[in-house]
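User: C-alpha cells in, sequence out, please.
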C-alpha cells in the first residue's frame, strides 16, 4: 500500500513510519521542515515538504495514496486554539475529498468529544472515505517537557504544555510538585506513542464501512501514582501532582500572559479530566491496553533527564 503519514517525525509519526516501512508499504511522510528530509529518507520513506495550511500541497500529496494518517500539531501560539484546529481540519477534509482518498485515520484526543473548543471530529463527517478517529489518552512523552522544571531550573509561574490530551501543568522544582486543575488522586489513562503507532498501523490496513472510533491507552493510574513513578526514576520519589481549582488555574494562566481565550480552553480541557468523564468514556469503549507501561517509559525518561 501507499500510505501518507503526516506529523513529520514526531512521537507517533516516526515509530509509525518505521513500522509501516518494515511491513513493506510505500510511505510518504509530510513535514513542514526541509531539514527533516534526509532523516525521513533514512527511514526508507519519501519526504513531502510542505504545510498542512496549504490545501493544494495536501491534495497533491494525497492523490495517489491508498491511505492517509492525518494529525494536527497543536500550536499554542494561536490565541484561539479551537479556531486553529477547525481551520486545519477543514484543510485536511478538503484535500482528502479532492484527492478521493479511500482510507483515512484521523488523530484526535480522548476528551475531544467532551470539550467543545477541541472537538473538530465533525469536520470529517461527510468525508467519502472509510474513516477511523483515534482517541489516545495522555501521552507519556508529555513528561519530557517537564524536565527543566522538575530540575528546578524553571520555577514559580512558568506553565508547560503537555501535548494533545490538553494536559497542562505547573511544576515547582523547589517543592517537587506537578500542579493543574486535575491531578492528585484523579485517575487518568496514560499512553505510549509507540502503542498509538501500533494501533494506527493496524487501522490503516482496515476498511470499515462505517466511521469507527478507537480509544488507545497503555496504563491507568492516579496522577500522584504517575508522578511517583517518574519522580522515583529521577531520584525524587516525593514528586506529587497537586490539584488546583479551575479559578486558581485560570488565574495562573492569565498571570503567565496566556491569551484569555486559550486560557479558558485549557482550563476546560483539564476540568473534563478532573470530572472523570474522559475516563468513563474510555471504560465505556473497553479498549485493549497497550504493551508499554509507565515504568518502562520512566527508564527512558531518566536517561534523558540525567543526560540533559
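Assistant: Sequence out:
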Amino acid at each position: 500500500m501507499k500510505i501518507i503519514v503526516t506529523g513529520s517525525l514526531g512521537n507517533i509519526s516516526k515509530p509509525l513510519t518505521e513500522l509501516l516501512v518494515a511491513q513493506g508499504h510505500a510511505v510518504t511522510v509530510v513535514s513542514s521542515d526541509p531539514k527533516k528530509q534526509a532523516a525521513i529518507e533514512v527511514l526508507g520513506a519519501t519526504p513531502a515538504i510542505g504545510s498542512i495550511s496549504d490545501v493544494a500541497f495536501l491534495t497533491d500529496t494525497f492523490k495517489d495514496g491508498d491511505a492517509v494518517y492525518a494529525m494536527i500539531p497543536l500550536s499554542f501560539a494561536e490565541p484561539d486554539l479551537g479556531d486553529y484546529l477547525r481551520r486545519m481540519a477543514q484543510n485536511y477534509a478538503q484535500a482528502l475529498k479532492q484527492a478521493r482518498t479511500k482510507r483515512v485515520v484521523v488523530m484526535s484526543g480522548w476528551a475531544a468529544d467532551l470539550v467543545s473548543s477541541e472537538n473538530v471530529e465533525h469536520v470529517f463527517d461527510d468525508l467519502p472515505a472509510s474513516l477511523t478517529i483515534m482517541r489516545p489518552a495522555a501521552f507519556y512523552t508529555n513528561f519530557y517537557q517537564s524536565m527543566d522544571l522538575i530540575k528546578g531550573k524553571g520555577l514559580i509561574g512558568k506553565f508547560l504544555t503537555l501535548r494533545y490530551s490538553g494536559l497542562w501543568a505547573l511544576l515547582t522544582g523547589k517543592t517537587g510538585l506537578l500542579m493543574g486543575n486535575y491531578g492528585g488522586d484523579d485517575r487518568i489513562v496514560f499512553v505510549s506513542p509507540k502503542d498509538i503507532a501500533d494501533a494506527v498501523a493496524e487501522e490503516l490496513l482496515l476498511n470499515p464501512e462505517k466511521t469507527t472510533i478507537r480509544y488507545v491507552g497503555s496504563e491507568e493510574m492516579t496522577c500522584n501514582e504517575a508522578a511517583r513513578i517518574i519522580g522515583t526514576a529521577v531520584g525524587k520519589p516525593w514528586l506529587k501532582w497537586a490539584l488546583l481549582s479551575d479559578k486558581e488555574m485560570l488565574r495562573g494562566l492569565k498571570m503567565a500572559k496566556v491569551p484569555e481565550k486559550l486560557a479558558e480552553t485549557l482550563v476546560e480541557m483539564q476540568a473534563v479530566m478532573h470530572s472523570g468523564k474522559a475516563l468513563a468514556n474510555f471504560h465505556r469503549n473497553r479498549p485493549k491496553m497497550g504493551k508499554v507501561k509507565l515504568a518502562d517509559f520512566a527508564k527512558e525518561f531518566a536517561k534523558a533527564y540525567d543526560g540533559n
